[in-house]
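Try it yourself: sequence plus KG4, in.
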Amino acid sequence: MEKETIYILAIESSCDDTSAAVLCNNKMLSNVVSTQKIHEEYGGVVPELASRAHQQNIVPVVHQALSIANIDKKQLSAIAFTRGPGLMGSLLVGTSFAKSLAMGLGIPLIEVNHMQAHILAHFIETENKSKPEFPFLGMTISGGHTQIVLVKDYFDMEILGESLDDAVGEAFDKSAKVLGLPYPGGPLIDKYAQLGNPKAFPFTKPRVDGLNFSFSGLKTGILYFIQRETKKNPNFITENLNDICASIQYTIIEILMDKLKKAVKQTGVNQIAIGGGVSANSGIRNALKKATKTHGWTTYIPEFQYCTDNAAMIGIVGFLKYTQGDFSKQDITAKARYAIGS
Ligand code: KG4
Ligand code: ZN
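Structure, out:
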């Protein structure tokens, strides 16, 4: 008997990106992301403005995803959507839209945990790329989260460590703000860091027990350092931007790599898969590539388009749940706090 072809329409609206994707089984046919520019002028995501922008974007973004995939909505097998974690007002837009569309088309609805999706993005079919084997360590590094997770199976994940305060993406963005760079500053720090000396300015790394992280002290350390130096030389930032960014990035990557080494030692698992916006960072990518040689790790780094928030990662989880018959009821609600293991 021929295997059924499954078409999933996936919707992601947890923060400030409105995204829709179509998958045919585990293959991505389209992955449309509309990034909300409005937040740049506020130096961070404004929840109220994010939900309004989702309202405006969701219909055109879904249309575009179907049109690029060349799929009619009548061909869809199910609708997958991000249930949480995220901003409630933002989640409600995607959740309500997905529920209505699934009901209108008379097809199943599938809820997806955004943090699981960042990890399971590795299972989207990609040419010449092997997939992680269970068990592996997942490290999700984004603007909202920093976690090291033991992934025993698709839907069996255990948090080994997480940030006690700021997420690593926030550490990048807040440091960038101190340097007068626009939001989100992570990609800019990365850009300038590649031209600078990572050992130019040593910053103190936080001491945190076990596999947990803390980034708020580093942020304050950087702020005080910049205030001190600009008092002596008002042009300190412009004259040293590359070296400052390289030093900040070096410190943050060291913090992440130190914990990963600890996690490998603790679990005996040396397959590492990263996910989340910060996995686009050149420093972490290079450090992980190096670790394959120096520590014998097998590392998995997602394609750039699957690093930051996107609906294709929601779609792959939708596909995996579809094959397991794991569907959601129409009375399901969005969940702003939603642990990865629950
Ligand atoms: O996963 P994501 O798109 O959204 C969240 O769920 O948070 O991650 C966004 C975060 C932002 O903090 C952004 O500055 C950071 O990822 N980011 C980077 C880079 N690209 C995105 N941080 C450092 N280097 C990058 N190249
Ligand atoms: Zn994310």
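One thing you can check immediately is this: The CA atoms of residues 25 and 319 lie 6 Å apart.
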